[in-house]
Specification:
Shape: globular
CATH architecture of the largest domain: Sandwich
Distance between the termini: 29 Å
Bound molecules: 2-oxoglutaric acid
Number of domains: 2
CATH class of the largest domain: Mainly Beta
Strand content: 15-25%
Helix content: 10-25%
Number of helices: 9
CATH topology of the largest domain: Jelly Rolls
Radius of gyration: 23 Å
């Protein structure tokens, strides 16, 4: 169910993706090409033209190398390089665009693989809202999450990734002799006893993890956002998922956090931090759009979910609520803050380069509000929560 991010230049091919507005070539103005990038929400891969509905990326920008990209040969006499050079971002800010692509015969000739409708991306907070607390609160209430791109310095995150995998190398987690920053998994059995010892005795209670999770870009951000003294729950979770560790019981199943935190305030906020780049194939965190509304309504009505996951069948849950799963190509430094009511889940790591998905999830709240006492010890796999 992982979708592809597609990009098109309206009017001419890019990476074999020529596209033009609904009116066809006759009304296409080659002097005013626009660049679009996003996720395909709906696709009709059919003759005479493939069509798609594209949800524009919120962080849309022109790629630096756009003008020099190689284009497939054109039948029509078009100065492809000039078109790419002239491409600009659209003036209109419509989120969804209808795009008509070339006939399938031409797409085949250009070896463009079929585009499939995929998951949608969570919308990153636009830069003009990043320092506007009121706008952020409004967004959190309406979407249930704040996707803060580049909140942490990339170096800070990759240094922790390196530390983590170097520390766990003796347990056989990574390919011997490989760069720990890459986190390339070693196929085969691990020394599970050694892994648990290093993880729970050294890393979880260690200084480096404490520094990362209380970093000014994390703790300082919560202080500013919550406008108060803050409390970081001591129970902080680090998860690594090796490629191939697929199937029920591996990726985090769909749940919302409050079911595990009911002894404290419902206003506790989680922060999910990918520890390294986490493109969709590495199994990032996915959010069920709008689910905080029904989860909150259920809690208010007293029809509480038990302290357990809702399901591992993500498509069925989305169907049941007629909602989309949101999933992004997260980059080192990005974080997502989510409400305790928003349903989320992990996806399978199917990375062909064998990179391990590493992330942490931590919880902050106002120090003055009720604190769930059960979360005030370091995380261990035996804490029963
Ligand atoms: O990283 C994951 O797979 C799960 C994270 C999570 O449950 C959370 O951030 O609350």
């Amino acid at each position: 169910m992982i979708g592809r991010r597609v990009f098109v230049v309206h009017g001419l091919g890019l990476a074999g993706l020529p596209a033009w507005a609904h009116h066809g070539w006759s009304s296409f103005d080659q002097t005013r090409p626009i660049y679009l990038e996003g996720r395909a929400a709906k696709v009709a891969w059919r003759n005479p033209h493939a069509e798609l509905e594209l949800d524009l990326a919120a962080d849309l920008k022109l790629p630096a190398d756009l003008a020099t990209r190689v284009l497939p040969a054109q039948a029509a006499a078009v100065d492809a390089q000039a078109v790419l050079k002239a491409a600009v971002l659209p003036m209109r800010r419509d989120r969804r665009w209808q795009v008509e692509l070339a006939p399938l015969t031409r797409m085949d000739a250009w070896k463009v693989p079929e585009i499939k409708a995929g998951d949608s991306i969570p919308e990153p907070v636009p830069s003009n809202e990043r320092h506007d607390r009121q706008a952020l609160w409004q967004r959190l209430r309406s979407d249930g999450y704040l996707y803060l791109k580049g909140q942490l310095d990339r170096q800070v995150v990759t240094a922790f990734r390196e530390y983590y995998f170097a520390a766990l190398a003796p347990a056989g987690l990574i390919e011997p002799g490989s760069d720990p920053r890459m986190g390339v998994g070693q196929p085969g059995e691990l020394d599970r006893g050694e892994l648990r010892r290093i993880l729970f005795d050294d890393i979880v209670p260690g200084e480096k993890y404490a520094a990362l999770t209380a970093h000014p870009a994390v703790k300082g951000w919560f202080q500013w956002f919550l406008g108060d003294d803050v409390h970081l729950h001591k129970r902080k979770i680090i998860r690594h998922i090796r490629p191939g560790e697929a199937g029920i019981g591996t990726a985090t199943q769909a749940h919302y956090d409050l079911v595990y935190l009911r002894e404290g305030t419902e206003r506790v906020l989680s922060m999910w931090i990918p520890l390294g780049d986490c493109p969709v194939e590495m199994g990032g965190l996915t959010y069920l759009e709008g689910s905080h509304h029904w989860a909150m309504a259920a809690e208010r009505a007293g029809t509480l979910h038990l302290a357990q996951a809702i399901t591992a069948d993500l498509p069925a849950l989305a169907d049941r609520h007629d909602a989309r799963w949101l999933l992004a190509d997260y980059e080192a430094g990005d974080v997502v803050v989510h409400s305790a009511y928003l349903v989320h889940a992990g996806t399978d790591n199917v990375d062909t380069a064998n990179r391990i998905r590493l992330s942490t999830d931590i919880r902050y709240q106002r120090a003055t509000e009720p604190i769930d006492w059960r979360w005030q010890e370091h995380w261990s796999d035996e804490d029963g929560l």
